[in-house]
Amino acid sequence: MFWLIAGACHPDAELTLEGVxxxxxxxxxxxxxxxxxxxxxxxxxxxxxxxxSVPAMGEPVADISVRSSHxxxxxxxxxxxxxxxxxxxxxxxxxxCARGTTRIRGAGELRHKESDRLTGVAEGLNALGAxxxxxxxxxxxxxxxxxxxxxxxxxxxxxxxxxRLAMTFAVxxxxxxxxxxFDGRSAVVSYPTFFRDLERIRA
Length: 203
Hints:
Blueprint: H1 2-9, E1 14-21, H2 28-35, E2 39-44, E3 61-67, E4 75-76, H3 78-83, H4 88-96, E5 101-104, H5 117-127, E6 131-135, E7 138-142, E8 155-157, H6 163-175, E9 180-182, H7 194-202
Parallel strand pairs: 4-5, 8-9
Antiparallel strand pairs: 1-3, 2-3, 5-7, 6-7
Helix pairs in contact: 1-4, 1-6, 4-5, 5-6, 6-7
């Protein structure tokens, strides 16, 4: 999901992700990004191609391509949040790059993840030039499509030793006008090659 949002938000990008699991019960974040207007194409793998080298063996798999897109704000319901809870931080970054104001409703569960992600993503993205506010259990993100570099700038964000926040702020560094610094680089245990892949995409 991080690379799909990087590709959709960057002004000059085209990325293809191969062998992505697209189980209907676990792809809500992709569908939300499509609803925002992301230029995403999926090419399903035929069942005869799947073998034991595919982590999602037995589930639908596709190659997914994404291109630079003009994203529009949407509203996420509490059901959307529940179905895409781990992707909410990076979806907040997409919302910061969209036109209009996105509201993410009923995101209180984010307070009880590896960190208080509700506060962490708001404070971190604000430190990088986004406009995110917390209203009760809702996140409200004012998009920056009409501002240079989506309004994102270099700066320092606190990742709170949370891998999802660290990866979100790293992707923000691809999109902003200057470098981004954050703590918790070593916290990206869920995706050990993340920073190596980030450098490949940056190149």
